[in-house]
Design goal:
It is built from 2 helices and 8 strands; from the N terminus they run ααββββββββ. It is an alpha+beta fold. The protein is elongated, with a radius of gyration of 26 Å. The chain starts with a helix and ends with a strand.
Length: 152
């Protein structure tokens, strides 16, 4: 228990002119804050989440030029096309109903361009339905958002 002694001496050096009761109140407040932060850290570390593998993903695709929104369903492992994009779902998973709702998909996106000759990979990574901005496709024409993962 070295921390309280260090904190006490620091409080005494800084606030030696104030009453003992105020120094003790400050020390108690610091101890409460310390235990709250430690408890929050340990409680957050103990949370385990369960993922269920899905075999299909539903994406929302936006064409920024025409402002058209479309829904694209793709099975895991197969490629789907939207405009010049080739979208492949590599893995799709979701939380069970008793946990907070979340869907995640690992996708690969290639842009074939308008010539269609050599597709260029423009995105490969995880996307999440609850926070689409965490990992997003950056494309001048198209935008993709994960709606959900599911099993047939």
């Amino acid at each position: 228990m070295r921390q309280p002694a260090i904190i006490w001496s620091a409080i005494h050096a800084k606030f030696g002119h104030i009453g003992a009761w105020l120094r003790r109140a400050i020390l108690v407040a610091i101890a409460c804050l310390w235990s709250f932060l430690a408890g929050s850290f340990l409680a957050g570390a103990a949370v385990a989440t369960t993922w269920i593998d899905g075999n299909k993903a539903r994406l929302q695709a936006l064409d920024k030029i025409t402002a058209r929104i479309s829904t694209v369903e793709a099975p895991v492992g197969a490629a789907r096309f939207y405009g010049t994009l080739e979208i492949t779902i590599n893995r799709c998973a979701f939380h069970p109903p008793e946990e907070p709702p979340e869907n995640a998909a690992f996708i690969t996106v290639r842009d074939r361009g308008y010539d269609g000759l050599a597709p260029k990979q423009v995105f490969s990574g995880w996307i999440f339905s609850s926070s689409p901005a965490v990992s997003a496709l950056e494309h001048p024409v198209y935008d993709l958002t994960l709606l959900d993962c599911f099993t047939d």
